[in-house]
Design brief:
The protein is an alpha/beta fold and about 350 residues long. It has helices at about 15-25, 40-50, 70-80, 100-110, 115-120, 140-155, 155-160, 195-210, 230-235, 240-255, 265-270, 270-275, 310-340; strands at about 5-10, 30-35, 55-60, 85-90, 100, 125, 165-170, 215-225, 285-295, 300-305. Strand 9 (about 285-295) and strand 10 (about 300-305) form a beta hairpin. Helix 3 packs parallel to helix 6, helix 6 (about 140-155) packs parallel to helix 8 (about 195-210) and helix 8 (about 195-210) crosses helix 13 (about 310-340). The chain contains 13 helices and ten strands. Helices cover about 45% and strands about 15% of the residues. The model is unreliable at about 340-345 (pLDDT under 50).
């Protein structure tokens, strides 16, 4: 049986590294679908994968998780193309360009907090979010809600009798309970939208297990560690590229003392790849699976308990269902408005 794998945000970083690793493992029995916002980059990623794996089956799907209409039409396309989906990697994400506190950064460089500072941006970053055309907070929509809507739309291909399917979320060590507020799930009033969205994905994963395990659908969460990707470079937009190059030896040195500095996308994708090979029933729904790299460069996966509880996860799930209902009504109404002025038969 061919395994069907869909990866969101697959054109760069750990999403692309995961695709490369999956194809290296098994080109014959794999149908890979790269769901990306930018189709030029998606084409380039597909070409790169096919260069190293000429016989692989790699399809493309245009999808922007921050856009409701994009998610709905992409999901419809997936249902038309595939009669089942074995793995759905919910990996797409954005981190808005933060305000960078230079003073705190240099203070942190010479303190015991240096590892935490680089791994999570704690103490040196505050972020400004924006609002999507659908009226949602952009980070919340991209990192969490668009993926939630996608899962709901793909239920027919994910939940099938006699088969198990896996949802695998790319979370972060920056997922802090303190950044999340159940009364403000979109994080409109806070300054840490990224951290809030990642903590919410940890909670949501637990809730999805509660609701879908009986239908053979399992959800897991990973942390890629500190990886040098476009997302990381975006943390310090004013930082010239050569400074990152100068910092690399410092990062390699830090890695001798901490296993969370995975640094390379290949290493960051370790937990994503490890989960591909596990029986989902054997996984712990309250654990986050961390990609780790030893000082000598050996990569491995380790589960760590998440700071989450069933009650909060259920409350978030219900709020997301309510928001989904509102968003669908609004979307339907806007579709109707676009269609009606031209008269009957225009749609």
């Amino acid at each position: 049986m061919n395994k069907v794998v869909l990866v969101t945000g697959a054109n760069s970083g750990i999403g692309l590294a995961l695709c490369e690793r999956l194809l290296s493992e098994d080109t014959g029995g794999l149908q890979l679908c790269l769901a990306c916002r930018n189709m030029c980059r998606a084409q380039a990623a597909r070409s790169a994968l096919l260069t190293s794996h000429p016989t692989a089956r790699v399809a493309l799907l245009q999808m922007d998780t921050s856009s409701i209409s994009s998610v709905l039409s992409a999901a419809q396309e997936v249902r038309l193309r595939y009669n089942r989906l074995d793995y759905l990697y919910l990996n797409a994400g954005i981190m808005p360009n933060p305000q960078f506190d230079v003073q705190a950064f240099f203070k942190g460089l010479f303190s015991s907090k240096i590892i935490t500072m680089f791994a999570t941006g704690e103490g040196i970053l505050t972020q400004k979010d924006s609002v999507t055309p659908d009226g949602l907070q952009e980070v919340f929509a991209t990192n969490l809600f668009g993926h939630f809507l996608l899962v709901r739309e793909l239920e027919p291909v994910l939940c099938q009798a006699g088969q198990t399917s896996q949802l695998i979320w790319t979370s972060s060590s920056n997922a802090h309970r303190s950044a999340f507020d159940l009364e403000d799930i979109q994080h409109q009033r806070g300054s840490q939208p990224y951290s809030s969205s990642k903590y919410a994905s940890d909670l949501l994963s637990l809730a999805l297990n509660t609701h879908y395990n009986k239908q053979g659908l399992y959800s897991s969460v990973i942390c890629p560690g500190f990886v040098m990707t476009n997302l990381t470079y975006g943390i310090l937009p004013s930082f010239p590229a050569f400074l990152w190059t100068l910092l690399m030896p410092v990062f390699w040195l830090i890695r001798m003392f901490t296993n969370t500095f995975t640094l390379m996308p290949y290493n960051g994708a370790e937990a994503l790849f490890w989960l591909f090979k596990q029986k989902p029933e054997s996984l712990d729904p309250q654990a986050k699976y961390h990609s780790l790299t030893s000082g000598l460069g050996h990569t491995y996966t380790q589960p760590r308990k998440m700071d989450i509880d069933l009650e909060t996860s259920q409350a978030l799930y219900e709020k997301l269902l309510q928001l989904e209902s509102e968003v669908r009504k609004k979307h339907k109404a806007s579709q109707h408005v676009h269609c009606s002025p031209a008269g009957p038969g225009s749609c």
